[in-house]
Amino acid sequence: MEHRFERLTPHIVIMHAEHETDRPILAAIAGQRRTLLLDAGNSPAHARLFREELQRQGLELPSLLALTHWHWDHSFGMAAWNLPAVAHTGTAEALKRLSALEWHEAELALLAAEGVLNEASAEHIRLEYGDAAQVKVVPPDVVFDQRTVLELGGVTCELTHVGGDHADDSCMLYVKEDRVLFVGDALGPSVYGGPRRYSSTGFLRLLETIYAYGADWIVESHGVPLSPDDFRRELDPWERLARLVDVFGKDRTRVVLELKDYLGLNELPRDLSQGVEYFMAGV
């Protein structure tokens, strides 16, 4: 597996997402006094790779951790970092519940069956860990409700709760001096507790929130950093789809017809066809 690292700005180094076992982007944000780690990774192995790269580059290791949300791929590496962690109250509640579990195969299967996780996440955990009994979940140390500011020394990070379909506790982190917005998985559909779904109104609200920052870089956890123009170009069909669902509701035929007309296509690409079903489920 190839591991990709990038210095995104003078203050920010990222480890790119890896999709084989659902590893999200990790970021080290360095100020004059301390370095902040954004998301812990999905396992000790994931965490170790990023730590080793930071050491190889001669960078100061993180002394503080912030989480975008509770999902396993963002939080299960916490024990390996052993850092004070900042997270939303919803994140803290979810991780506290998971920390009390005995992580073995039967319990992993039960979590998937109950919708706490899903089958895809359970399989990724098996692939990442080999043995689910190796999982150790750690609750965060500091919690907030709406917004908190983390001063790193000449670098200011704003961690803001935004919610959304993907996870009620989803947060975005904005690095003010670098004009970089980490949106986590906030724009994703719901993935646990039933069929994948999007709320068109909620999706549009999150897009408005993102655009209001005026960031120079927009980073989704399982994507690649994008300029504002590239982000708008990539999200334009999805924004149009959400607006059509807002107007036509569960009229799938009309929504698809109007979206094809807008895009000048005879058939929708597979991802947008899936997106139609997610939005229909969310009406």
Q: Which sequence of SSEs, written as H and E, runs from N to C? A: EEEEHEHHEHHHEEEEEHEHHH
Rg result = 19 Å
Class by SSE composition: alpha/beta
**Oligomeric status of the shown chains?**
single chain
The chain-level mean pLDDT equals: 97
The helix content, as a percent range, equals 25-40%
The overall strand count is: 12
Question: Main beta sheet, described?
Answer: 7 strands, mixed
Number of helices: 10
State the end-to-end CA separation. 39 Å
What does this protein look like?
Strands 1-2-3-4-5-6-7 form a 7-stranded mixed sheet. A 5-stranded mixed sheet has the order 8-9-10-11-12, with no helix packed on it. It is globular, with a radius of gyration of 19 Å. The protein has 10 helices and 12 strands. It is α/β, with parallel strands linked by helices and 283 residues long. Helix content is 40%, strand content 19%.
Task: Please give a quick description of this structure.
The protein is α/β, with parallel strands linked by helices and 283 residues long. The protein contains 10 helices and 12 strands. The strands form 2 sheets. The chain has a 7-stranded mixed beta sheet with strand order 1-2-3-4-5-6-7.
